[in-house]
Amino acid sequence: MKRVVIKQGDIFSIETEKGKRYFQYICKDAYQLNGNVIRVFKDDTMTDVEFYIHTIISIGVKQYGWVKVGNGPVPDISNVVFFTDVDMAAKLYVFKNQDANWRIWTVSGNEKIVKELPEYRCEEGGVYPPCRIMDVICGKDLGYNRYMKDMPDL
Question: For the chain, how many structural domains are there in total?
Fold first, then answer.
């Protein structure tokens, strides 16, 4: 198998039970385990973004046959907000705040711990294995996805 060099802006195709889908590699997120942030397109026109999510592209290429099909300009995603839940150990020992339920952040480094998820759209921030990315692209819900009203003040 030929080694695939992955660079920012690379566009990949994924063969799913519903046909081909496309995503673009945007950046590594130093605030989330250096996960690869991707944007998944709604259709093959690659104009509308369905969602952003973290994964490990190299594993998807090796194990699931994700194919690099090109490269395009990398958009500014400084206004994309990600979130994860805060577990009890982090509440007690890291944040020292039992009311902290959610961690929200942007890849530019702004981070905030909040009790409730805000009303604007937030993208699930966990780093998901490629098999889970395949599930989500095929329409299986992660359980979370919020719709943007206003950009947060992080």
Answer: 1
Question: Is 85 part of any domain?
Answer: yes
> Is residue 86 domain-resident?
yes
- Kindly report whether the global pTM for this prediction surpasses the value 0.70: yes
Helices then strands, each counted (H, E), the chain: 3, 9
Tokens standing for 86?
Answer: 């805060």
Domain span at 82:
10-137
- 84, 109 in Cβ contact below 8 A? no
Query: Apex CA 119: angle with CA 113 and CA 123, to 5°?
Result: 70
Q: Which residues pair with 40 in a beta bridge?
A: 23, 51
**d(C-alpha 14, C-alpha 16), whole Å:** 6
Give the residue ranges of the chain where pLDDT is below 50.
Answer: 144-152, 154
- Alpha carbon distance 115, 86 (integer Å): 10
Cα gap 133→40, rounded to integer Å: 10
The whole-angstrom separation of Cα 72 and Cα 70 is 7
| C-alpha span between 39 and 50 (Å, rounded) | 7
* Mean pLDDT of the chain, nearest integer: 82
The token duo for 126 is: 């966990």
